[in-house]
Specification:
Distance between the termini of chain A: 17 Å
Helix content of chain A: over 70%
Number of domains of chain B: 2
CATH class of the largest domain in chain B: Alpha Beta
Distance between the termini of chain B: 18 Å
Largest interface: A-B, 60 and 73 residues
Order of helices and strands of chain A: HEHHHHHH
Number of helices of chain B: 11
Number of domains of chain A: 2
Largest sheet of chain A: none
Structural class of chain B: alpha/beta
Strand order of the largest sheet of chain B: 4-3-2-5-6-7
Strand content of chain B: 5-15%
Helix content of chain B: 55-70%
Oligomer: heterodimer
Order of helices and strands of chain B: EHHEHEHEHEHEHHEHHH
Chain lengths: 212, 270
């Protein structure tokens, strides 16, 4: 019983009280309570930091284990572990300023960011492939998305290609301003109601992801 | 003491109070009638097709990949979607493992990964398997959505993985993971609430959950009273908001909105 109180009821009560307080603070400015709420945010940051550490240990254990057991892809695991070690060592060297250190920043700017950008640029090709497959399958929704995307694309380049005329630009602007905006707002409104519903369950303790 | 969002705060608080009211009314009805769940939920066909696929996967010896998206639990912008995604992961993992379908659960963030791992661990225990198996199939990319999508693509290229569930906090990176899922997997369920990802859903699968449907999915996969009641409240509030929008359009057309109702929605300039 004591174990249940400590592992279920205490986190539930704490989460509910903090949830209600943060909700009230979000809407109402109460003088004198700001330090308390700033403290909550700092606690959350510290706890998230520990979770990152735990995640790093988990990743290290998984990949070292993969190398030791020579499982498929173990070569990539060596690269991952070495990369992580290099960044950690550079950030913890005597005199280093941690993640703001010039050497660590160099790795982020000249290795990580170009890799991420390169990968992100593949989206255009993936999109083309998805459009092609959608047209082949004759799916109505996918066809609508594809046709709309083509109109918007042509509308964007039309000012540079005078022979396309100005009607397509106006039509593209109307598409974005009226039907697309209406759709986006509908999705956002529905999602907001869903998010309130989820938050309400967590605040009332009906959903307890922190103890499950 | 002052309202942070001017008179709009009153409307927001009213909406929350109304939501709580709906919640408690349905909760009361649930316990009075017991069978309230049967009268409400609208059908979500993608989830029914997912169940049918899991049965086939069990017969064919296929595995399924589960992801709650590339969101985090400690930032306001993605916490609700990530929680909804985690509910889907927990529900599908439980159904899949009960049928003997292996599960590969992945996450982009360390905290989400822990909750994700717990959900799969619990599903293993419910299926009568020893705990700890989940750790083998759970990993983390640490808040880099593009790197995470690349990792998911790698998981989906494994021949045994023929089912893919991507429901939660996604942006454009959904296309990277979803496109590989569309070509490599026999079944794919995707769901997103952000407009950037929502537009991509029909391109990667016919089975998708759009917008608020991702918040409803948890109640279908695991119909606990709390979830069903909140789904009913969600549907009720949705209808009220719909009616208010129609009323707003009529009042705006009549020219009444600007003079009477607009001040209610005004927020202080910052």
């Amino acid at each position: 019983m004591l174990k249940r109180i400590v592992t279920v009821y205490v986190p539930w009560v704490l989460a509910s009280i903090v949830g209600v307080l943060v909700l009230v603070h979000f809407f109402v400015a109460i003088p004198g309570l700001d330090p308390l709420f700033n403290g909550f945010i700092e606690w959350a940051t510290i706890i998230a930091g520990f979770a990152v550490l735990l995640g790093l240990i988990n990743v290290g254990r998984e990949h070292v284990g993969r190398v030791v057991r020579r499982r498929p892809g173990w070569g990539y695991s060596i690269v991952l572990v070495l990369s992580a070690l290099v960044v950690i060592v550079l950030g913890m060297l005597p005199g280093s300023s941690g993640q703001g250190d010039p050497l660590v920043q160099w790795i982020f700017h000249y290795v990580l960011e170009p890799l991420a950008t390169t990968f992100f640029s593949l989206l255009a090709f993936f999109l083309a492939s998805a459009f092609f497959r959608a047209l082949r399958l004759r799916n109505l929704e996918a066809t609508l998305v594809t046709v709309t995307a083509v109109i918007v694309l042509v509308g964007q380049i039309a000012p540079s290609w005078p022979f396309l005329g100005t009607d397509i630009v106006r039509f593209q602007e109307w598409l974005l301003r009226v039907p697309a905006m209406a759709g986006v707002r509908a999705i956002l409104l529905g999602s907001a109601i869903g998010a309130i519903s989820t938050a309400m369950r967590v605040i009332l303790g009906l959903e307890r992801p922190y103890v499950e | 003491m002052a309202f942070r969002f001017g008179s709009a705060t009153i409307l927001a608080i009213l909406l929350l109070v109304l939501f709580a009211l709906f919640f408690f009314v349905f909760w009361f009805l649930w316990y009075r009638r017991g069978r309230l769940a049967e009268i409400s939920p609208r059908p979500l066909l993608p989830l029914e097709r997912l169940r049918a696929y899991l049965n086939r996967a069990a017969e064919m010896g296929e595995a399924v990949h589960l992801s709650p998206g590339a969101g985090v639990l400690h930032e306001r912008k993605s916490v609700a979607e990530t929680l909804a995604g985690l509910e889907v992961v927990a529900g599908v993992a439980r159904d899949a493992l009960a049928l003997g379908v292996p599960v590969h659960a992945t996450a982009d963030d360390a905290v989400v990964s822990l909750v994700n791992g717990n959900a799969v661990d619990r599903a293993h225990q419910l299926a009568g398997r020893p705990p700890g198996l989940a750790a083998e199939s759970t990993w983390v990319a640490q808040q880099n959505p593009i790197a995470y999508a690349a990792g998911v693509m790698d998981v989906l290229s494994e021949p045994a993985v023929q089912g893919n569930v991507l429901v939660g906090a996604w942006d454009e990176e959904l296309l990277l993971a979803g496109e590989v899922g569309a070509t490599e997997c026999k079944f794919q369920l995707a769901g997103a609430a952000r407009p950037a990802a929502a537009a991509l859903l029909p391109l990667i699968t016919e089975d998708y959950l759009l917008g608020e449907e991702i918040y409803a999915a948890g109640a279908y996969l695991d119909p606990r009273p709390g979830r069903v009641v909140s789904l009913l409240a969600q549907d009720g509030i949705r209808m009220i908001v719909l009616l208010l929008i129609v009323l707003g359009v009529i009042l705006a057309t009549a020219g009444v909105l600007d003079t009477i109702l607009l001040p209610l929605f005004q927020m202080p300039v910052r």
